[in-house]
Automatic annotation (TrEMBL):
It comes from Psychromarinibacter sediminicola. This is Triosephosphate isomerase. Involved in the gluconeogenesis. Catalyzes stereospecifically the conversion of dihydroxyacetone phosphate (DHAP) to D-glyceraldehyde-3-phosphate (G3P). Gene3D superfamilies: Aldolase class I. The active site is at H92 (electrophile), E162 (proton acceptor).
Length: 244
């Protein structure tokens, strides 16, 4: 299984920041893992042009469940693919909060991603209140059941565990807490998808930085990271890539 370092630029990035992607490509001409940048949709096509043959994949941060139509302001999986994307992040906690996205909505978006041959990175994770109530595994299990369609394989899906309270806060679960959730996710995926589950990559996301990447990547069933803030600068993201 090739591990994955995925950068989520969120609503950050102008043409001037394409140089960060270029610098990353220069510094990691032969990365030991798969490298992915998910810039804002406005930059995907230009970043694809800038990167040329560099071994960096591109992805969107959301897609609509329909392929085209009267949905002002939305972007479809077909469009992401056309712009040069091969991945799309779905169900990020910021989408769930800002746009009231449910697991059922994430599921139909995942199916839309598959129609366009995009690999879906489906995000799940508990809030602080849910963790303090001892509900973490219940929440993660329910989100996986609801958001993942039948037919998940190593090629068409990646699951990202992102505790909501760890995103952008500098707070990171203990390595035991990460292991508990990732082992549980693998068990649940195996129960539902059988042999195909062994190759599905499980990313940890939430305040991953160059200085904590080593210990996070050593945790069982952690197959890479979904990185927000630290993916914006080539030096920081490069440090994380180097740890994989
Ligand atoms: C994210 O947005 O997916 C994320 C993990 O953010 P950060 O790395 O900044 O916590």
């Amino acid at each position: 299984m090739k591990k994955l370092a995925a950068g989520n630029w969120k609503m950050n990035g102008l043409a001037a920041h394409l140089s960060e992607a270029e610098a990353l490509a220069g510094a990691h001409a032969q990365p030991g893992c798969e490298v992915l940048i998910c810039p804002p949709a406005t930059l995907i096509a230009r970043m694809a042009q800038t990167l040329g043959d560099a071994p960096i994949a591109l992805g969107g941060q959301d897609c609509h469940s329909a392929d085209s139509g009267a949905h002002t302001g939305d972007v479809s999986a077909v469009m992401l693919k056309d712009a040069g994307a091969s991945y799309v992040i779905l169900g990020h906690s910021e989408r769930r909060t800002d746009h009231k996205e449910t697991d059922a909505a994430v599921r139909v978006k995942t199916e839309a991603a598959w129609r366009s041959n995009l690999t879906a990175i489906v995000c799940i994770g508990e809030t602080l209140a849910e963790r303090e109530d001892g509900k973490t595994l219940d929440v993660v299990g329910t989100q996986m059941k609801g958001a993942l369609p039948d037919g998940c394989t190593a090629e068409n899906v990646v699951v990202a565990y992102e505790p909501v309270w760890a995103i952008g806060t500098g707070k990171v679960p203990t390595m035991e807490q990460i292991a508990e959730v990732h082992d549980f996710m693998r068990t649940e995926l195996t129960a539902r998808f059988g042999d195909a589950a062994a190759g599905i990559r499980l990313l940890y996301g939430g305040s991953v930085k160059p200085d904590n990447a080593d210990e996070i990547f050593a945790v069982s069933n952690v197959d890479g990271a979904l990185v927000g803030g630290a993916s914006l600068k080539a030096d920081d993201f490069g440090g994380i890539i180097g740890a994989l």
